[in-house]
Amino acid sequence: MTAKPKQIVMLNQRFVLYRNSKGQVVALQDRCPHRGAAFSVGWVEGDCIVCPYHAWKFQSDGTCVDIPANQPGTPIPRGARIDGYAVQEKYGFVWLFYGDLSEAERPPIPPLPEFEDPSLHKIFFEYELNAHYTRTLENDMDMSHVSIIHTRSFGNGFEPEQKMEDYDLHTEAWGGHVDVNVENYTQAKDLFKYVFRPSKSKVKVSLGFYMPNITRLVVDFGRGKIVNFTVHVPVDDSTTITKRIQFRNFLTTRLADPIFQRAAFKVVMEDKAVVESEYPKAVPDRLTDEVHVPCDSLSLAYRKLRQKCLAMGWGLNSDQNQLNSSNSDLAVVSELTFN
């Protein structure tokens, strides 16, 4: 990312991001309060963002400091300001906090010790689905669909009607996870057939989530390990850009990266039709609106925590699709990443 302004769309809102002279990322509302032009079409001047329409200049805190058309001494209108947002760079992403809580009150960016582990090779990739982020997130941490949807990829190694063993759910302030053992995983296709060679394999799987839009998958098959750290970026009510860091401790040469990227994309395409078909688009706010079974305990924990956040006012209405001009009612548990 350079000093050139870049527009990011998330939660039906438009943001403009750029770097100042110190290399720090600045995030502002991408809408000039004068005539609504996008700052992302403008330019950066002296650490300020300049509107491309009438060259109004705004500081990184959103305050307008110059209106070229004004006569000297003309006061700048009080309404000539835009919202700014707290950002942090971590794990190769820019994280944006969309709300007005103090730093101490905000949900933390989750730990990712693998990012600094020299024994692990990492790759970044992303894909887009025409689905609500709550549906893509739940799909990412659902084990019981694997033997049904993914029969042409890694799911082929499961029994045709894989029974889910009982597992313990571990919850914390901003997330939860489960640990699952998969027995006799032996018939995988494509890339996975080179990994699961023994006549009988035991795979240890850990699935988890962090609020509001992050999932984590760890697959340990003894001879190697894969970790998927995934952020489900909600563009709008029916579009999600999923950004993923995948770590592995085998075939760590960069020459193998395209193989793993193609394998991951194939898995996503197997999910695509089903996830995009789900109705309603977002997971229901009421737990009783859909039926749950024991193997849904992780997604149920996510829904309960989401319900708690919504009850505290930490969310946007599904029909809120206009640009905001104040920070008074913004979602405060939403985060954004981009490379």
TrEMBL record:
Residues of the signal peptide: none
Listed name of the protein: Aromatic ring-hydroxylating dioxygenase subunit alpha
GO molecular function: dioxygenase activity
Domain Rieske: start-end pairs: 1-96
Native source organism of the sequence: Trichocoleus desertorum GB2-A4
KW Oxidoreductase (keyword) present: yes
Protein origin, superkingdom: Bacteria
Keyword Iron-sulfur: yes
Keywords assigned by UniProt, alphabetized: 2Fe-2S, Dioxygenase, Iron, Iron-sulfur, Metal-binding, Oxidoreductase
